[in-house]
């Protein structure tokens, strides 16, 4: 049974990767220009104002998203499709007597440069000089995050209903899947890290944190899920999660926590003066490590898989395809574990930081 399941998973992953290659014929088979690995990888992992699905006969097929700009003349809204899938700064959109141009997924006020079809100006170092409006657009990562939030609510509402509809108090359906995970967070994360006295207060936060990160990680793994994005591989996303943990830890910290940071009991005064600045920096290093760990691990997995697929086009040999796909599938199977492990690590470290802040000591 396990062998059969493994073969089915491998076949599905191979199909997904093959479809992902065929869906981008311009990138994969355009011999008129050199294949740029960096450009292809960054195109897949960075944020954008639309969901690029595939190319058909050189024409991009995409799902447009709303662009919301606060400009000098007030609020401006339109769909990203008005830029005609252009990201090179050659297409402008005129709204409220203003012109806008999209360049490398950033929106600027258009400037006439004197060159035909160019609306972006640079300084001598290559930095864009165009002014930017305040961009409040719904990008693909924001849209993906909204979907994960809806999924999170639906999962827990459906789980709660299985308990309310159960006659003997045991969950049914979806509840049978979520209950072991909830108990795992309770028994293996909240109780040992926070303590029996206070763990219930922080269970909603820890459960939300774990499932929210895990759902977004899983959505980012599926190559052809229409609205998936590398959300956990965006450092702004991991930064906000780390800041939330930092704020909670700081607000609930008791006097023992601060005493052990600034004036550790039981140590000579010179050693206290030496360690106090280090411990103070540790307050900020902890959330920074949370932020970087999740961002780096999720991004690294995507980059490795895309790099392995790129080997086919770098060496321009179809003979390399089986080897490249084999290792891509192998890394993908590892990624299935990594996305859950990283959600668990972020959650358990957050619980550990909160637990250390509220722990009471006897001196």
Outline the fold blueprint:
Blueprint: H1 2-22, H2 25-29, H3 37-45, E1 50-56, E2 59-64, E3 66-71, E4 74-79, E5 88-95, E6 98-103, E7 106-109, E8 134-135, H4 140-164, H5 175-194, H6 199-221, H7 235-252, H8 255-262, H9 269-314, H10 321-358
Antiparallel strand pairs: 1-2, 3-4, 3-8, 5-6, 6-7
What does this structure look like?
The protein has 363 residues and is an alpha+beta fold. The chain folds into two domains: 34-137, no CATH class; 141-358, no CATH class. It has ten helices and eight strands. It has helices at residues 2-22, 25-29, 37-45, 140-164, 175-194, 199-221, 235-252, 255-262, 269-314, 321-358; strands at 50-56, 59-64, 66-71, 74-79, 88-95, 98-103, 106-109, 134-135. The protein has a three-stranded antiparallel beta sheet with strand order 4-3-8, with no helix packed on it. A three-stranded antiparallel beta sheet has the order 5-6-7, with no helix packed on it. A two-stranded antiparallel sheet has the order 1-2.
